[in-house]
Specification:
Layout lengths: L3 H4 L3 E3 L2 E5 L11 H15 L4 E9 L7 E11 L3 E10 L2 E11 L25 H7 L12 E5 L16 E7 L8 H14 L1 H9 L10 E2 L2 E8 L9 E11 L2 E10 L4 E10 L1 E2 L4
Antiparallel strand pairs: 1-2, 2-4, 3-6, 3-10, 4-5, 5-6, 7-8, 8-11, 9-14, 10-13, 11-12, 12-13
Helix pairs in contact: 2-4
Length: about 280
Amino acid sequence: MGDLDLDTRLTGGDGAYGAVLSEDWGIWGPNGGYVGALLLRAAGAHTELLRPASIAVTFLARGDYAPVQLATRTLRRTRRAEAVAVSMTQDGRPVAEALAWFVLDDLPGLDHDLAPLPDVPPAGDLPTDAERLQAVGVEQSFRFFDNLDQHSVHWSDQWPPAAALPPPSDTWCRFKPTARFDDPVVDAGRLVIVLDTMGWPAAHHHHAWRWPADTQPWVAPSLDLHVRFHRFVPASEWLFSRVEAPVATHGLLSSEGRAWSEDGTLLASAASQMLCTPVPPA
């Protein structure tokens, strides 16, 4: 099991940082949201501003579970905001690029919220995904999911399902072994991970009924990810995410999502573009 704080810790300083990509966050390689959380943490170490506003990540290569280097630089600084660029490399090979905006806290401006928490059962009314898998004698495929208490709203014990499951991926998540973090940048990393990860299930559940139980013809690594942070409720251990995959065509798969706190506060929204690639032979 991984720990988000420990597994995104940095060494170095003054725009040159080091970290290690942990195998505990692996799916098809290091999870894209985990890579994004590490990039955000490097940007947070670079700036004096405490509140992340957004991060846009471009994924260039699948990293190995090994040390990486992160170089940061300021692209623009005003009295209210700073734009920080982050480059992640591994032995000279580009892995990811990011642009993160940070702003002063408690800025005045327009104030409204027209995106309430969807009408779904609370996490406590749903079994965990691990319990559901255990009940049908299936083991979790990826170590990444050991890091989460995950309660999916839509579920089928029959796999492949008899028909396409509902299009959104509606999921309650709580991170393990630490559910929330005092560092606002690390805490924001929870949102990056959840909103990146749940895009593939939203599409996968729409198509899996056509596939044999032991055959999945495609995976879809992320080309990019853009997360916008709206508010923070650091006391909320549970996060609810609704992620949809509204279109897949010509080898590209798009996802759009939002994440709320347990009390219904909209925390972040995101969009991602993924590239469908054939599952490599075993």
